[in-house]
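All the exercises in this workshop are built on plain-text protein records. There is nothing in a record beyond a sequence line and a structure line. A learned vocabulary of local backbone shapes supplies the integers on the structure line. The question running through the whole workshop is how a given chain folds. Here is such a record, shown just as it appears in the course material:

***
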Amino acid sequence: MTKPDVTLENSDAVYEYYLGHRQNRLLAKAAYATLAAKFRPRVRYANGARAAIRDLVRSDTPLVLSVNHLSEADPYTVAAAAWRSPLRPVIGRTRVLAKDELFADSSLRDRIDLMGSIPVFRGKNHGMRAVNAAGQRMMDVCATRMSRGDSVAIFPEGTCNVGDPTRLQAVGSGVGHITSRAIRLGVTPALLHMGISYGGDTKGASVYFAAPVTDLPDKPAAITRLVHERLQEAVDGAVEFGRR
């Protein structure tokens, strides 16, 4: 299928394309390994979290990975941390939500397509009413991809935190809706939360994984509240880890 232009007016074709898009997993793994060598994040886990994540990956449990958003370098940090963690086997089988403007440049689009990205049309850029239908379609695509065995990675704050990097901004409801829709499709997902702290340097970031959550509510609002609570715990862990 020919790559469609990523524009809001073309959103039906965009999401039809990304419903089935598969990147080259070998090239994706090579890219993640390169980013791990370049950014060198320090990765730490809550008690028991590393073994729990490994078990979930081995059982092919679809994951919803939520990450705080501090910098435009965050996707590279997440990729580097994934390579250095038990998440390495799901590289190439994880959809990463990314703002639509990143898909405008063809060379950049090739790189983010390789990372498994799915475009998101944000209300702050296009207006909430204008993006409603596209947003619903994006969430359905993510849930369907999870029903096919993929995981999803999200920056649920939706925009970079330019205030206090130790405190989460409001978490958007999209993560709750995606997870809830996947559950309705028969998926039994796990929520995973990754906190990032830079301490003034995007290289050598401190990354902290909270313990994964497998006992989930099914309502979007309850899931969103749970994500906010557990992601703040992950941020707290990353900040404390970064001070050492």
About this structure: The domain at 8-242 is CATH 3.40.1130.10 (Glycerol-3-phosphate (1)-acyltransferase). The beta strands are 42-45, 63-67, 94-99, 117-120, 151-154, 190-197, 206-209. The mean pLDDT is 96.
